[in-house]
Amino acid sequence: MGDRSQPVSAENLSPALLGRLPSEVRKPAYDRTALRPGIAHIGVGAFHRCHQAEYTDDLLAKDFDRWGLVGINIRPPLLADTLGRQDGLYTRLIRQNDEVEARIVGSIMRVVDSQDNAAPALDVLASPEIEMVTMTVTEKGYCHIPSSGALDLDHPDIVHDLANPQTPRSVPGILARALELRMATHGRPVTLLSCDNVPTNGTILGNVVRTFAERRGGKLADWIEANVAFPSAMVDRIAPAPTAADIDTVEQRFGYRDGAVVVGERFRQWVIENRFAGRVPRWDLVGASFVDDVTPFEHLKMRVLNGAQTTLSYLGVLGGFEHTFEAIADPLLADFVRRMLTEETLPTLMPVPGISPTAYVEQSLSRLTNTAIRHRNHQIATDGSQKIVQRLLNPIRDRLAKGGGIELLSVPVASWMAYLIKASARFGRAWQVSDPFAERIATIADRIGSNSKLLADAILGIDAVFDPSLAANAMFRAHVVADLDGLLSNDPIGFVRQVCSG
Ligand code: CS2
């Protein structure tokens, strides 16, 4: 530790460097040269490296088996230049305010770039030794309609893939093609495990792949029924997109360079539905839970933790805060989120074995105060149209069904609208947004101007996001209109203060 401030040389992370790293950096506790591929993962971003790959690293250390990971990217960034150069090795930093803990994860044995051409991905996914395919492809990767969960047959990538099934671009198209190749060659069963924050993620993945296969015709749909499992899973760990500052932290503190470093909080959780095809990595030996029904865990996590993040992200941007930890440091926003979760979200949850919901709310809010996790509000705000159903609209629907009030939960829904409206030309484009519905909402805003009622009416009419029966609910509409009006004013935070005091 003595030479921390003066790194001897900023050598890049590599297998050869492992033996020379400072002792405080934890290293893989198994023989990496004995790894054999058993798991393929699609979407090797920060979350995967902080979550499934770390659990697998734990498993390999505890009970070594043929569960090496092959990491595939079908979207940018390229993996070859970062993880590829480092033989799959990377540093996972845990940061909790001032504490920094470093660990090298060794479970990724190979990376495959398949961004412009699905063939390299298909080679891996169809190979007989792969028995588990996990994925973090973001909410929109499933090409489903958020409000219904059905495959979006008008999605340009789905239209393309149905016309060109051997050269697919979409996740459903690539998986269906891989399964077809498996059926035609060795016929071995496989589990496809979604690790995205999509509600009933296994069911939706199963829907989109099956629908795609049915459209293709032939025997594929029947083969899938008999040989493929789509368990649902709840995944949790806050792991924002890494920055150049994280690379510098590794260099300054530990004396080497790592272009693939990831930073996460200490908390992690993985609850997986116990429904598999073929052999399964025993992640349950290292902290994951295999359960019969993931739904209560999924509702708890998406409605509380993710619901809080989404709320803080939109109100945070409107209030001028850059990161989650800054938004929640504002007593007004913290109070608003706590009240929303406690008064309106908690009553919609099912009992969760072993977890006290109120303690979970406090734990979640406290996780968000971690100043070392620099999670940008704009990052969380991205693709809100794909997130608000499970985080906000489903609890609102449940609340309305029980005759409960929704005056707090409606605020983040309106704040998602305000976030997109304020990014339109009409409002001078104060920030860049990324959401599949951004253009549609910008067009609405440009056409309608600033009449909140007309704006809300038009946006609530987007039935891919708002289920028509929810959009028709008078109480919901009235709240969204009033909230949007307040949030589009010059003082959105003043409006939140008013909601809190009312
Ligand atoms: C975040 C999630 O960007 C987002 O949508 O809300 O990535 C969140 O940090 C994770 O779900 C935490 O497990």
Tell me what the structure shows.
Keywords: NAD, Oxidoreductase. Residues 293-486 form the Mannitol dehydrogenase C-terminal domain. This is Mannitol dehydrogenase family protein. Residues 38-284 form the Mannitol dehydrogenase N-terminal domain. 43% of the residues lie in helices and 12% in strands. The chain is of the alpha/beta class. The chain has two domains: 15-292, NAD(P)-binding Rossmann-like Domain (Rossmann fold), CATH 3.40.50; 312-501, N-(1-d-carboxylethyl)-l-norvaline Dehydrogenase, domain 2, CATH 1.10.1040.10. The strands form four sheets. A six-stranded parallel beta sheet has the order 6-3-2-7-8-9, with helices on both faces. Strands 5-4-12 form a three-stranded mixed beta sheet. A three-stranded mixed beta sheet has the order 10-13-14, covered by helices on one side. Helix 3 packs across helix 5 and helix 9 (295-319) packs parallel to helix 12. The longest helix has 25 residues, at 295-319. The radius of gyration is 23 Å and the shape is globular. It starts with 10 loop residues before the first strand and ends with a helix. The model has no long low-confidence stretch (mean pLDDT 96). The chain binds D-mannonic acid. D-mannonic acid is lined by residues 197, 236-238, 306, 309, 379-380, 387.
